[in-house]
Design brief:
Distance between the termini: 34 Å
Strand order of the largest sheet: 4-5-3-6
Strand content: 5-15%
Length: about 350
């Protein structure tokens, strides 16, 4: 793959910086600190340019514990300051995102524009109906403590294989090294992109070397379908060996199962041939969130985006009764779309 240079001038371009400030502020524009920057956009654009040229020094992260998802999994979130850190992260990603996603596998679905959870759901539904023979069995696995386990030196080496602009590489190194612990922090805008990029070699190994016909990855959650159980076990051990070289470990809870034996539980969905539902715990979580949003006097961008996302997910599963009973009577989807459109127009 040809390495790309001459990127620094694009990153420090004032138009790029200004767009980065607008993008970083999305969904946060009622906060005082964000309003201050937006209302003085020319001054802060110039200041960020000076920071980048003279040497960016990241501010300390704000650490927060959350309980994520239906299973209330405990996570530690490391939140960078809006100004200048989040804005600078956007300055970088607006320029390099296209470069680090050039070799991305088609069905790598998490945190990727135009893909996401719905894209993964459609793919799995399609192959289960289209090809019964080669989806007779499946293997489901994920990586143990993925974000904290990413090796910084390996990540930097991967960057150098595709980018040759020294100043850009220095900025990427600064962002990677701004996190004192091992791995990359959950909470950085850059982390989701860096994490996907870190596993690109694994995706190519599974598809090109192991010849897996049907494979989907949602960040570190993976599912591979096949016609033969023994071959899937062999494939698993090849993946485990490959990940050892990347300093990553597969969780012990991996499973190889027959597709017809029970619904496939993946990315919060339960897949059967010709029929897809959402976990009961996910239904309960959505129901509670919808009820909470419906009681608010005003609909903000974050809530509106969440409802649009929920509606898209539900429309791609067999959940018509849920939508008509718990979503549509309480929240106007068109109003949500209007709120999101108005936020985008502000940019």
């Amino acid at each position: 793959m040809r390495r790309i240079g001459n990127l620094w001038s694009k990153i420090i371009d004032k138009n790029n910086i200004q767009q980065a400030i607008y993008n970083a502020s999305k969904g946060k524009r009622n906060r005082k600190a964000v309003k201050r920057v937006i209302n003085n956009i020319v001054f802060y654009t110039n200041e960020i340019q000076e920071i980048l040229i003279n040497g960016y020094i990241p501010k300390p992260y704000q650490k927060r514990k959350i309980f994520d998802g239906a299973r209330q999994k405990e996570r530690i979130i490391y939140k960078p300051t809006f100004y200048p850190d989040q804005c600078i992260h956007w300055c970088l990603m607006q320029v390099i995102e296209e470069i680090i996603t050039r070799g991305m596998y088609k069905y790598c679905c998490a945190s990727v524009k135009g893909k996401g959870e719905i894209f993964a759901v459609k793919y799995i539904k399609k192959i289960l109906i289209k090809d019964r023979k080669n989806t007779k069995y499946y293997i489901k696995l994920d990586i143990k403590k993925f974000y904290p386990s990413i090796d910084k030196s390996i990540l930097k080496y991967k960057f150098r294989k595709i980018i040759k602009d020294r100043k850009v590489l220095d900025l990427m190194d600064i962002i990677v090294d701004s996190f004192d612990d091992s791995g990359v922090p959950i909470g950085n805008y850059t982390s989701q992109h860096f994490a996907n990029f870190y596993l690109q070699d694994l995706d190519h190994f599974i598809k090109e070397s192991l010849k897996a016909k049907y494979y989907c990855r949602y960040m570190d959650d993976m599912i591979i379908f096949g016609s033969n159980k023994k071959k899937l076990h062999k494939l698993l051990y090849e993946i485990i060996d490959f990940l050892k070289k990347e300093k990553l470990t597969v969780k012990e809870n991996w499973q190889v199962s027959k597709t017809e034996s029970a619904p496939i539980d993946f990315i919060g969905k339960r897949f059967c041939r010709g029929y897809t539902t959402i976990r009961d715990t996910t239904f309960l979580r959505l129901k509670r969130r919808i009820k909470k949003i419906s009681k608010k006097e005003t609909l903000n961008y974050i809530d509106a985006s969440a409802i649009i996302s929920y509606n898209g997910i539900l429309k791609n599963t067999n959940s018509y009764k849920f939508r008509t009973k718990y979503l549509y009577p309480y929240i106007d989807i068109n109003k949500c779309k209007e709120v999101v459109r108005n936020e985008v127009k502000f940019r």
